[in-house]
Structures are given as C-alpha cells and as structure tokens.
C-alpha cells in the first residue's frame, strides 16, 4: 500500500444505470457509484444521481455533497434541503425519498 495516495475525485467517472422502477417516485432518474478507496472496515466512493425522485432505505453513511442540490424527505415528512458543500450523516435503516433538482455528486464514507 502506498504511504500517500491522492484521488482526484473530480476525474472519477461514474457509470449510471436507470433506477429500479419499483423505487422511482417521479422522473426517469439514473444512479451510479464507484468505490474509490478504503481503510479497515470503511469504504469511500463517489455516488451520483440524475434529476428525479426515488425511495431508498439508507445504510450508515456520511457524505459530502460535491455538486447539485435536492431534498431528502423522511417517512415522517421531515425534509432536508441539501446543496454542494453540505456534509450529511444518514442512519442505517432510515427510509427516505431523494428529490433531486440538479444532479447530485457526493463522496460517501460507509462501513465496508
């Protein structure tokens, strides 16, 4: 393993797939992710989502939104606006709906 590794996240290409029709709320969103690196028990990667809305059940995760904006809506109706530069923590098992107005790109950190 290298003693220092630099990952140019702006250059990471993230291939997209159409979202599963069973989770789409609106639009024709696509998503994609690429694992970039990790340390013992932790994965770091880049995830993207195009415009639209999808349902999800979250993993334990912290992410930094690099680009885009939207709203994360919880099952109880609480809504959290997110934009580039925001650091967000998600608790495992949280039921969400992601409403994306401008395509999102985030770097995520989660248990491997």
TrEMBL record:
Pfam families: Cupin_3. InterPro entries: RmlC-like_jellyroll (IPR014710), RmlC_Cupin_sf (IPR011051), UGlyAH_Cupin_dom (IPR008579). SUPFAM superfamilies: RmlC-like cupins (SSF51182). It comes from the Bacteria. This is (S)-ureidoglycine aminohydrolase cupin domain-containing protein. PANTHER family: CYTOPLASMIC PROTEIN, CYTOPLASMIC PROTEIN-RELATED. Residues 43-108 form the (S)-ureidoglycine aminohydrolase cupin domain.
């Amino acid at each position: 393993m290298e003693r220092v590794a630099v990952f140019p996240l702006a250059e990471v290409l993230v291939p997209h797939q159409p979202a599963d029709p069973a989770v789409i709320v609106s639009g024709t969103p696509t998503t994609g992710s690429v694992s970039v690196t990790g340390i013992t028990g932790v994965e770091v990667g880049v995830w993207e989502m195009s415009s639209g809305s999808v349902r999800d059940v979250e993993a334990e995760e912290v992410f930094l939104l690099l680009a885009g904006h939207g709203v994360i809506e919880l099952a109880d109706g609480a809504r959290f606006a997110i934009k580039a530069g925001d650091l967000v923590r998600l608790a495992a098992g949280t039921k969400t709906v992601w409403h994306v107005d401008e395509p999102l790109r985030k770097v995520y950190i989660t248990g491997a």
